[in-house]
Structure formats: C-alpha cells, structure tokens
Amino acid sequence: MNDNLLKFGDHSLTIRYPSYRDRNTYTCSIINRRGEELMKKQVMLNVKVTKVKVESGAESIELPFKTDANLPEDAKVEWRDKENWTAHVFQDGADKLQQQSWYYRGRTEMRPNALKDKDLSLVVKHATESDCLTCTVYSTEGKILLRGEVLLQVKAHKEVVGPQQSAVELVFKTERKLECKDIKVEWRNRKDRKVYRYPSSDQSEEQFYSYKHRTEMKEGQIEKGDFSLVIHFPTDCDNDIYTCKVYRGDGTILMKKRVELHVKDHQVEVEDGCVTLPFKTKTDLLNESRIEWLLVEPTYRIVHVVDNRKSGSEQSEEQQPNRKGTKMNENLLETGDLTLTMEDITEDDCGKYKCVIFGKQGMILQEKTVQVLMTGMNQLQNEMAPLIDQV
Question: 70 versus 203: which is more confidently predicted?
Fold first, then answer.
C-alpha cells in the first residue's frame, strides 16, 4: 500500500503477480480508534489466464507461455502446479530433473533454447488431472523477473450405462504401436484402489476385493493397442473415476487415461401389491457369503437374509426373521440371481433398498441400490423435477 495513504487518501492495495487462485472479492474497511467504521469498499478481482483443454488419454499437451521480454541466459525457469509441486525446472540451458517432483518425472519437457527463443512453454505427457500451472522466471539472485499461468482442463471420457446391464467396457484404445515387450497395465479407482492389473498373474492379493471375479481384459487385446477394462454386473456402487496406466517393467509410463463410469439409478414400481428388486452377479462372489436385502431409507430394517456361510438355509437362529412375503431364488448360488420379490406392499415399504454381499470377515464384496416407488410416483417425480429446479 502507499506509505502516504493518509496524506493522499489513496487506500489502494497492490497485489504483485496476481494468480488464478487470487480471484476473489476483497473488502477494504477504514475504522477509527473507537472502532467505528468510517468507510468500506469491495473490489472483485478476476484474473484471466490461458486455458488449454485436452481429452484424457492424449499423448501430450503443450502449456503455452511466450514472452517478449529479454531474459538473461542464466535465469531459472520453474513450473509448479496448484499444490506447489515442481513440474519442471530449466536453467543454464538444461533441464534440472533432480529438482522435479516424482509425479512429473519423465512426463515434461521444454525447448533446449527456451530463454533465447523466448518460448517457455511446457509439454506435459499423459495428463489426467485438471490443474493450474504457474511458470516463474527468477534471476540468479532469486528475484522474480516474469510469471505466467496456464489453466489445464482435462476431460475424462464418461461411460453411462443402465442399471441392469450385464457388463460395461471402460474403453482405452490407441493406434500407437508400443515396441517394448514387458508392458504392464494397471486400472485404479479414485481412491487409488487397484481394480485390475495385467498380466493377470500379477493380480495377487493387491486387487481390491469388491472387483475380484468381476473385472477382466480380453485375451490378446494388449497387442492390438487395446487396454480397455470390462466390469461385469456394474451397479451404482461402481460409480467412480477410473485411471488406466500403461507402463514398462522399469516403471516408465507409456500412456495414461481416465474414464468416468456412471450407472443409472434403478427404480421399480409396485404393481398389484407386489414388487421385484432385480440383482444379478457373478456366482464366484457367492461362495461362503452372506446376502442381505435392507431398507435403508426413509427407515432402516433388514428385509431378507441368505447366509451361505452356515447350512445354506435362508435364516439361522441368531438372525431376526425375514419380512413376511419376501422370497429369493433357491438356486441363487448356481445362477447368481439375487432378485428379491416382495408381496403385500404398503406405502411404508416404499423407499431405498440395498442388497449387500458380505464375504469372509465381513468384507463387502458388492452392493446394489434399488428405489421402490408406488405406481405413478415415478411419473410424478419427473413432472415435479422442472418445478423444483425453477425454485
């Protein structure tokens, strides 16, 4: 601020090198010694930055940053992301890879004559996350000579499927030929849980248990540049963002892509006092399992239980009785059909139901949600939705 602000009445605030994250509304208040507010003003700051858009799975993207300034040859160029991780460092005509954060190793590059050509653009390979990257040029004394920002927007492919689809393919195909023989492929979800790994012999115990027996990559597809993953019997609990990484045995990343999966909500209506809640899955999941159908909203109660960890009967002495008028297929272990039929339905039975498959030690192997509505409620909800949005 101005040192003589009281004398000249200038209360302006200067922000040096404003960045994208500085966008905000700033309030200046002038208060006397008695705590009384004499003046107040709000200023909205909007910082414009270069935006670059790219589809997830693209081999590389350039973050442009050109300048007309005459920069010294010994200046240091540093790219950082919004988490302050170092994406790239360039100095004395060479890349300083030892100063780079592990996340960006082997994935960034700048021109050899970047300072001479006045082109400080950064190439990022296999970008999967949107980010705001800042380029700062320092003198040898550490003084900031120049600063610029680029907003990187990575769009993930979205796969939308119906609630009763038997399988979904998360597509990742390329025409690029990969010469190396020791290719490995790894799919992970947003929580970094391992969904699938190729070769399948490397699967081991690291694969997260809710994906076991339900994921696969087709035989021979890798040689054709197809790294797509198939998820069998997807449910709403599989809604997630999945990242595929293709790399060599030494860990060098060759390709990377994100795919978002959305399984539509499953709604069923009561007809003639009865309702059917469909759910099919892999039979391999049901060995020594406990299957529970639950009403979870608006109230909670256990509706039907099949315990295969005991005698295979539908209830044991320890569990509470199933709701009257419910039944499941007797040969569900052979068919994988966990569909629940309910009779004598009242309005109190409407709501959100969840089927949970428990494995050993209580691990949840798979879940599915089904919304039960009285006849006509679904149409009413669709008619009310635009009115609610207007409010």
Answer: 70
CB 353, CB 277: distance < 8 Å: yes
Give CA angle at 137 (75, 15), nearest 5°. Answer: 145
Fold of 50-155: Immunoglobulin-like (2.60.40)
C-alpha–C-alpha distance, residues 162 and 167, integer Å: 10
Torsion of Cα atoms, 228 then 234 then 240 then 241, to 10° = 10
pLDDT of amino acid 321: 67
- Per-residue model confidence (pLDDT) at position 313: 43
Token pair of 293, please? 């159908």
Topology agreement, domain 159-263 and domain 267-377 = yes
Q: What SS3 state is found at 260?
A: strand
| Whether the predicted pLDDT of 317 surpasses 70 | no
* pLDDT, average across residues 321-344: 90
What's the order of all strands across the beta sheet hosting 340-342?
A: 275-277, 340-342, 326-328
Work out the average pLDDT over 257-278: 94
* CATH class of domain segment(s) 267-377: mainly beta
* Single pTM value for the model: 0.74
Tell me which fold the domain 159-263 belongs to: Immunoglobulin-like (2.60.40)
Q: How many CB atoms lie within 10 A of CB 116?
A: 11
Q: Quickly state the pLDDT bin for 315 (edges 50, 70, 90).
A: very low
User: Domain limits of the chain?
Assistant: 5-45, 50-155, 159-263, 267-377
Structure-block tokens of residue 187 = 């799919």
313-339 average pLDDT score? 77
DSSP symbol at 3: T
